[in-house]
Amino acid sequence: MSTLGTLALMAAIAVVFVLPGWLAYTGRWRDWVNYPFVLYAPLAMLWIGAGGELLSLGVLVSDAGARPAGQVLGAIGMALIVVGGILLFWTPPPLRPRWHREREK
Predict the structure, then answer these.
(1) CA distances to 44, 45, 82, 85, 101 from 97, in Å
(2) Does residue 49 contact residue 77 with C-beta atoms inside 8 Å?
(3) Those residues with Cβ within 8 angstroms of residue 89's Cβ, 6 or more apart along the chain or in another chain
């Protein structure tokens, strides 16, 4: 597979992560809170997906010739992926959606 094909696949996978995360944050998907083994995975998926998108964009920008900008985008993407990995297990209350904080009260 070519580099462009690999990046397209990475972007598609990142979108698959962003959509459920966005639905969880907006409250359109709330069933996941009834399963304790899920923890905060749907909320973390948004962060991981956004990080994947920025990482893919950083590689494309670097290949286009703007290497410093691509490296910055890639670093931000990696940071979001790491933050998403942490948020899988613990999400601080300010980063939880309002509907979730109200439900916990």
Answers:
(1) 12, 14, 20, 18, 6
(2) no
(3) 39, 40
What's the pLDDT score for residue 65?
Answer: 87
Q: How far is CA 34 from the centre of its chain?
A: 22
Question: Residue 80 corresponds to which tokens in the numbers above?
Answer: 């979001």
CA–CA separation, 96 and 84 (whole Å): 13
The model carries a pTM of 0.86
* Token pair belonging to 15: 């979108």
Reported as a single tens digit per residue, the pLDDT across 53-78 is 999 889 889 888 889 999 999 999 99
